[in-house]
């Protein structure tokens, strides 16, 4: 490691005085102007992680659904997964050391992690469409090269595409080709394969309106469109040509405001969906004939997918272990429906994809979705092999069902939730089942709910347990919440410190919207 070069170049990426940042739920995130040093340092860290794992490591420059002025960065581990927890700590430490201590910090990490400094290092980089992203990704590259690492800059990518590239590169192309072309071909082939399953086919070419949050999802969907256009036609709005990234649009806006995005004309009963700014989340919605807006969130997406997969498993007669993973934000109705009507086991983890993903890996088929629309379905190697074998061996309808499952495996991004791939799976399922968006929505009725954010002096005084459903500290808070919840019917509430913003989040459910609103309000007062 050329320590002198590190000292020399790190002064070019000076750390603002007194700035302390933490590698949070989805990496570092703050105002773009404060991130140059973090990018350089994450380039250094990725080179070390690559040497230690003897694998390609990914770096994505994005702040997802945050405002355009923000930016962020996260590292992607060899199998396209989120960075390992011990390395998150190294990341926080490296981002916060003063320049004169950089050499020591890097040596410490290398020693602790037994990094072989003679190994080659290779890092792949992707970025979203924020005005700040290009320059910041150059600082990442600078970090990688200062440590003698090699890199490939993919330029503009959705976050899930970058995860896909990393996964492909570390599995010798078995998962797919590590190019955008490879991504389009793999997913489009599976999608077209699915919709071609003759006896299941619905009503021919379908149309879907997609709000792209004025983000990178628009560019990528445009590029990909012609691969699947005979089967599905997508009408893009908020495609970045006029509006501002994530401003009054995108999956996060639609989910949290429970209203349609700006710039989308919705005819009655028309199926619409929204991506977030880096296209790793998706929610669906429509307006009914009376003009009422209906949101179909991650919970209902998980329900549609689970019921479809269960039907197929029943058809092929295979008893694979299926589990659905949710977080505390999952609507109570969805959990009840999954457990009581569909009889699938449901598990709750802490918020953040890495927790859900990890739990989902325990199953043959692990279905995970956050209510906010981030999710995917993971297939164990054993399940995948079994299904591929059955697709060859079985006959008639059973064979068809196995082939559908095979295409579903190829269509779901196995590394991370992916708006484009989720959209294609959902469109295929609706087509195969001949199901309308209203029928999907009618699977169950959401319990009215409200989310609020509360500014407090120090959000870390709140700690939680039981997958964030119970507050441990400050003392008395949980008792207060319990007391308030008792005042309402069908009610539930919890608080948790945000992992991405300096706020405390409050969630409440109750039998009417007024009750949910007032319970959320009362709980937020108890937080002070
Ligand atoms: C990040 C997480 C998302 C989570 C959200 C919670 C990833 C890729 N994204 O966006 O899963 O729902 O944070 O944010 O892990 P909060 O902690 O501010 O509520
Ligand atoms: Zn995102």
Automatic annotation (TrEMBL):
Gene3D superfamilies, A to Z: Alpha-D-Glucose-1,6-Bisphosphate, subunit A, domain 3 (3.40.120.10), Alpha-D-phosphohexomutase, C-terminal domain (3.30.310.50)
Cofactor-binding details, from the entry: Binds 1 Mg(2+) ion per subunit.
Phosphoacetylglucosamine mutase AMG1 domain boundaries: 205-283, 297-434
Enzyme class: isomerase
PROSITE patterns: PGM_PMM
Record-annotated Alpha-D-phosphohexomutase alpha/beta/alpha domain positions: 51-89, 119-167
Pathway as given in its UniProt record: Nucleotide-sugar biosynthesis; UDP-N-acetyl-alpha-D-glucosamine biosynthesis; N-acetyl-alpha-D-glucosamine 1-phosphate from alpha-D-glucosamine 6-phosphate (route I): step 2/2
Co-factor(s): Mg(2+)
Reactions catalysed, as given in the entry: N-acetyl-alpha-D-glucosamine 1-phosphate = N-acetyl-D-glucosamine 6-phosphate
Annotated family: Belongs to the phosphohexose mutase family.
Protein name: Phosphoacetylglucosamine mutase
Originating organism: Echinops telfairi
Lineage of origin: Eukaryota, Metazoa, Chordata, Craniata, Vertebrata
């Amino acid at each position: 490691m050329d320590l002198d070069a590190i000292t020399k170049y790190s002064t070019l990426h000076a750390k603002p005085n007194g700035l302390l940042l933490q590698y949070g739920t989805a990496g570092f995130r703050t105002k773009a102007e404060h991130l140059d040093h973090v990018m350089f340092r994450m380039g250094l860290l990725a080179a070390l992680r690559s040497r230690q794992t003897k694998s390609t490591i990914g770096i994505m420059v994005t702040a997802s659904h945050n405002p355009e002025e923000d930016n962020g960065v996260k590292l992607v581990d060899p199998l396209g997964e989120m960075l390992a927890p011990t390395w998150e700590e190294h990341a926080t430490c490296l981002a916060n050391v003063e320049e004169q201590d950089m050499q020591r910090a890097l040596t410490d990490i290398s020693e602790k992690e037994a990094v072989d400094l003679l190994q080659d290092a290779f890092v792949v980089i992707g970025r979203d469409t924020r005005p700040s992203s290009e320059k910041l990704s150059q600082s990442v590259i600078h970090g990688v090269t200062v440590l003698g690492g090699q890199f490939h800059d993919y330029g503009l990518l959705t976050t899930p595409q970058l995860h896909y590239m990393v996964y492909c590169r570390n599995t010798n192309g078995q998962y797919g080709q590590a190019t955008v072309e490879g991504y389009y071909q793999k997913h489009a082939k599976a999608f077209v394969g699915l919709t071609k399953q003759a006896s299941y086919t619905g009503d021919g070419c379908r149309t879907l309106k997609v709000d792209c949050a004025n983000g990178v999802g628009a560019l990528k969907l445009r590029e990909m469109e012609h691969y699947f256009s005979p089967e599905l036609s997508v009408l893009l709005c908020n495609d970045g040509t006029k509006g501002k990234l994530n401003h009054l649009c995108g999956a996060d806006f639609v989910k949290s405001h429970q209203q349609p995005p700006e710039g989308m004309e919705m005819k009655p009963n028309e199926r619409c969906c929204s991506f977030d700014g880096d296209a790793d989340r998706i929610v669906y919605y429509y307006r009914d004939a009376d003009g009422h807006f209906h949101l179909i969130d991650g919970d209902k997406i998980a329900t549609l997918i689970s019921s479809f997969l269960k039907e197929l498993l029943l058809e092929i007669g295979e008893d694979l272990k299926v589990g659905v993973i949710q977080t505390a934000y999952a609507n109570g109705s969805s959990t009840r429906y999954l457990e009581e009507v569909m009889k699938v086991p449901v598990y709750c983890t802490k918020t953040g994809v890495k927790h859900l993903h990890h739990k989902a890996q325990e199953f043959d088929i692990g279905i995970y979705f956050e209510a906010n629309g981030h999710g995917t379905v993971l297939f164990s190697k054993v399940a995948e092999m079994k299904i591929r074998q059955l697709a060859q061996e079985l006959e008639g309808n059973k064979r068809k069902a196995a082939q559908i499952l095979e295409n579903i495996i190829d269509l779901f991004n196995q590394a991370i939730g992916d708006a484009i791939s989720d959209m294609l799976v959902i469109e295929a399922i609706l087509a195969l089942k001949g199901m309308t968006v209203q029928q999907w929505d009618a699977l169950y009725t959401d319990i009215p709910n409200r989310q609020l954010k509360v500014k407090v002096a120090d959000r870390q005084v709140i700690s939680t347990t039981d997958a964030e459903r119970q507050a441990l500290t400050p003392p008395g808070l949980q008792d207060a919440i319990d007391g308030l919840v008792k005042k309402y019917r069908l009610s539930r509430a919890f608080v948790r410190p945000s992992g991405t913003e300096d706020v405390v989040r409050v969630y409440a459910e109750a039998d009417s919207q007024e009750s949910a609103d007032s319970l959320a309000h009362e709980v937020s007062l108890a937080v002070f």
